[in-house]
Amino acid sequence: MAEDTALNPDYLIADEAELAALFPATHQLAIDKCMPALDAHSRAFIARAPFLCISTQSPDGLADVSPRGDPAGFVRVLDDHTLLIPDRPGNNRLDTQRNILANPAVGLIFMVPGFDETLRVNGTARLTRDPALLATMEVQGRRPTTAIAVTVHEAFLHCAKAFRRSRLWDPATLQDRKAFPSLRAMIHDQTTGRPADPAELEKLDADLEEAYRRSMY
Fold first, then answer.
1. pTM attached to this predicted model
2. Best label site of 48, 59, 105, 217, fewest CB within 10 Å?
């Protein structure tokens, strides 16, 4: 890994004691709100959430975060300690699944459009191909090949500050997607070292949309 010469080593924080000295003590409520299982509010939040991010760690210690989305309620709550996340078709890199096999520790953040609060869940994960469970997560006649079963170790609601600072759900902050290159245009540039010509780009974009249509589930 290249050394970041822009960081002044005199100001790098070296240990937890140095870090703690910079901030006030943790508010007791921030400690008390952490639960070892899902309660009624957590369950209701998950039932409303159409989107989450799952963090994992590779065998060599590299962190990874993957987005997961589906209609609200796509994550099944099997019991107060167990969540089930369907694995929908993707690019088949299998980063999340491979990481789970090597290191089962995971972190989840659930988001609900219009809610400034989030739900955080930390736990351990396993991969299942149980046909009875996969059948309950079938969409458009297609069931996932695998699902991620998360054993909940800690769950807590997170305050609204990040979303209010970012104004994430504020329609006034929406940006024009056309002001930025398309996904296929950027990947073409990154992988070939040259921008696509207009005719080539039009076909690449059309192919991507067709792939979305065919392989969403």
1. 0.91
2. 59
